[in-house]
Each structure stands twice: as C-alpha cells, then as structure tokens.
Amino acid sequence: SAAEKGGYASFMLKEIAEQPKAVADTLLGRIDGSGSLMLDEVRIPANVLREVDKVVIVACGTAFHAGLIAKYAIEHWTRVPCEVELASEFRYRDPILDQQTLVVAISQSGETMDTLMAVRHAREQGAKVLAICNTNGSTIPRESDAVLYTHAGPEVAVASTKAFLTQLVACYLVALYLGQVRGTKYADEIRAVVRDLASVSGAVERVLETMEPVRQLARSLAGKDTVLFLGRHVGHPVALEGALKLKELAYMHAEGFAAGELKHGPIALIEDDLPVVVVVPSPRGRSVLHDKIVSNIQEIRARGARTIVVAEEGDDAVVPYADHLIRVPVTPTLLQPLVATVPLQVFACELATARGNEVDQPRNLAKSVTVE
Ligand code: G6P
C-alpha cells in the first residue's frame, strides 16, 4: 500500500532513500569510544581467527558483488588469501576447505538455497562459517557458526539496494576486525578507516541529494538497447552491480567489465553514442589506476562512446572526457563502492520506470530463491 511505501512511488525508491540510516544501523554499537571494533557476535574465538589461513566468500546475485568487493578489503587489511565464489558453483567443484578456512556466507534473506548448500558443504569439511545476513533467525545464520546481522530493516523490492550497502559495511567490519585480531602492519590504517566508516552515512546522504541530473540522464536513455559499465579495483564489482541492476529492472542488455580488459575484447563493442558508465577510482591513493582509467575514457570516447563518468569530487582530470559527470564524495579507496553504487541504483530505477516497468517486482525474478 501507499502507506507502507512511506510516500515513495515504490519500495525500491524508499529503500534507496533509507540507505544512510541503514548504513549507520549496521555500524551501531560495533565501534567503541577508542575506535576499536567490538564484534562480540563473531563467536569464533580470537585464537581460531588467528589460525585462519584462507577466507572463502560464497553468495549469489547482488550479495556476490558485495563479496567481490570484500576480497579487496580482506586481503589488504588481513594479508590472508581470500577467494570469492558463486554459491551455486562452490560445492560442485570439490573446493579445498579445512579447519583453518573461514567461510563467509553473504545473504540478505538468509534463505537462498544455493548459499545454504554451500554453508552446509563448508561445515561438513570442518570450515568455520560466518554469515552476513539481514534477516534475523533465518536458515543460513542458524546453520552457521556465527552471524553478523546487517540491520538494514526489511527489504521488499526484489532488486537489492540497502541490503547491498549494509553487506558492504559488514564486510568491511569483518575485514577490519580480522586485521585487528591478527595484528598486521596496517594497524594504524585500520584505526583510521574505522573512523572514516563513521562518516559514510553522511556521504551517502550527500549523494542522494544530488541525484536529479542522474534521473534526467536515465530518462533520456530509455530508448537505448545497451549500456556498458567499466571499473577497476573495487570499481569493477561496482560496474558489475550497476549492470545487474539495469538487467533486473530495465530488461536491457547491460554488461560490466574490468576497465583493464577493455583492449582485450570489450572495446570492439564501442559504437557511436553507446552509453558507457565508468567508475573512476580516487586520484589520491592508487593514482596509477586513476590515470589508467582516464586513458580508457579517452579511448572509448574517441570511438564514439557517450561517457557517463562517476568520479570523486575535485577529480578534475576526468572533466574534459566526461559527457556526463556524476560526482561522489571523497572516501578512502576501499570504501568508494558505498558512494559509487548509489547513483547506479538511482539510474537503473529511473530508467526502468521510464520504460514503463514495475521496479519492485521485475518479471521472472524472486526476492529469495529457495530452490537450487
Ligand atoms: C535473488 C534476488 C537478488 C539477490 C539474490 C541473493 O536472485 O533476486 O536480488 O541478490 O537472490 O539473495 P540473498 O537473499 O541470498 O542475498
């Protein structure tokens, strides 16, 4: 009903708008006054976490994209190797798991059958399983060794938005916590990022306040057949997520690519006026990556692409090559997906609506897939 949607035209719009609060709720009570993480819920003892020699993330759909981003954070802050695998592929390839493996299962619903089967398989092999989940008391957390709830509140729209952002926050917390428990050379950086996490809710709020040009752009592209998305580093999974949203909601051909792969194939797809969304990493930090992606934008634009550039505030290098520029607040490199994903959600939602689609209930999709 209209009342349930809180005045919004769809649950999806409501849930997009709830993201600043959802992100803050995921952090609530998990950081103490001195900036240390308190994750008592992770009932896996510190000595066991110190022995972990491999992290394996399993998930489906949008949650899988959260996992792809988590890999960058986990490996950087903990120096423990991390694999990310589609839950539906996991147990069928006889994965290598033992008591020193930490499996992280990410699921909004906690009921996705593919993910549940991966959890069962992992535990049978002796691995410890930590669930990241949004639904209290659901099956996956009940069958796991521990759970970190995302506290995003109920998500009704089939296409995941606030659950995704809060899964990211939970993944960062797990990565930082593992780093904290194990003690790495990144101790100072970990403390700094924990502080930065506290300002992320406000950053997401600022993104939401500047979305009118994105909505206009989305409406103007409603007649297109294809949209491509490019990114690298943590921007690559963001590109995959932007493309998935467009498929799910607008029923358009959309693909996400690692920008570094452009010359190995995807550049052949570029033609006149093809919209290409490019997620640009911060010019600070990993500036080499930034410069490479600016070259990619020039390359595709020279071949006719209409460039839609998502870049940090103050990043002037992209301005000459951006047909459309979407600004996001400055964040630490690894946290950028929290702000860069939001315009892509708004873009897909608006474009789908302009095409006459029902965004809360896309055709052929279910919110929770409880069969394999
Ligand atoms: C379905 C939904 C997706 C979701 C995926 C995983 O395919 O349509 O939006 O990302 O399941 O769901 P989960 O509840 O496990 O996060």
Plain-language structure description:
- Helix content is 43%, strand content 15%.
- With 372 residues, the protein is an alpha/beta fold.
- The two termini are 32 Å apart.
- It is built from 14 helices and ten strands.
- The longest helix has 21 residues.
- A five-stranded parallel sheet has the order 2-1-3-4-5, sandwiched between helices. Strands 7-6-8-9-10 form a five-stranded parallel sheet, with helices on both faces.
- The protein is globular and about 55 Å long.
- The model has no long low-confidence stretch (mean pLDDT 95).
- The chain binds 6-O-phosphono-alpha-D-glucopyranose.
- 6-O-phosphono-alpha-D-glucopyranose binds next to helix 4.
- The site of 6-O-phosphono-alpha-D-glucopyranose has 16 residues, from helix 4.
- Its EC number is 2.6.1.16.
Short description:
This is Glucosamine--fructose-6-phosphate aminotransferase (Isomerizing). By secondary structure, the chain is an alpha/beta fold. 43% of the residues lie in helices and 15% in strands.
The overall average pLDDT, rounded, is: 95
| Spatial strand sequence of the major β-sheet | 2-1-3-4-5
Oligomerization state? single chain
* Order of helix and strand elements from N to C terminus: HHHEHEHEHEHEHHHHEHEEHEEH
Number of helices: 14
| C-alpha geometry | globular
Structural class: alpha/beta
Query: How many strands, which pairing sense, and closed or not: the largest β-sheet?
Result: 5 strands, parallel
Proportion of helical residues: 40-55%
Beta content: 15-25%
